[in-house]
Amino acid sequence: MSWKLGWEKKDTDKYVRRATLSDHFFFSDYEAMHKLALMLRHLPLPLRDAYTFAISPADPDDPIVSSALLSFATAYSQRCAVCCCHLSGIGPAHFMAGFTRTSFS
C-alpha cells in the first residue's frame, strides 16, 4: 500500500493558527518534516515507513543530504540491500570492492 499526503499545507497552517496549548507544550516546526514527506511521497512506502523517513534528522534544503535520503529510501522501498554506499554517492559494487574478507574481522 502506498502512502499519499492526505492534507495540504494550508490545512495544517490553519490548524496551527487556531490551536491553543498550555505553557507546558509547544508546537514544533513541521516545515522540514513536510518538505521531506513531499520529497518521498512518490515512493511505494507503507505509512509507518514514510513517517519514519519524514521525521529523520535530515535538512531538506541541503541537496547532498536530500539526495542521500532519497537514494536510501528508494533502495529501502524496492527491498534492495541498503548500505552506506547509498549515502556516499558511489555505486554498491565500487563501494564493496574496497573491502576484503579480512577487513571485517
Explain how this protein is built.
The chain is built from six helices and no strands. Helix 2 packs across helix 3 (47-54). The radius of gyration is 18 Å and the shape is elongated. The chain has one domain. It has 105 residues and is mostly helical. Residues 94-105 have low confidence and may be disordered.
Helical content stands at 40-55%
In total, how many beta strands? 0
Shape descriptor reads elongated
Strand content: under 5%
Number of domains: 1
Decide which structural class fits the backbone: mainly alpha
Provide mean pLDDT, rounded.
75
- Largest sheet, strands/sense/barrel: none
List unreliable stretches of 5+ residues: 94-105
End-to-end separation: 40 Å
Using the CA coordinates, give the radius of gyration.
18 Å
- Continuous helix count: 6
SSE pattern, N- to C-terminal: HHHHHH
Summarize the structure.
With 105 residues, the protein is mainly α.
Key traits:
disordered C terminus, mainly alpha, 105 residues, elongated, single chain
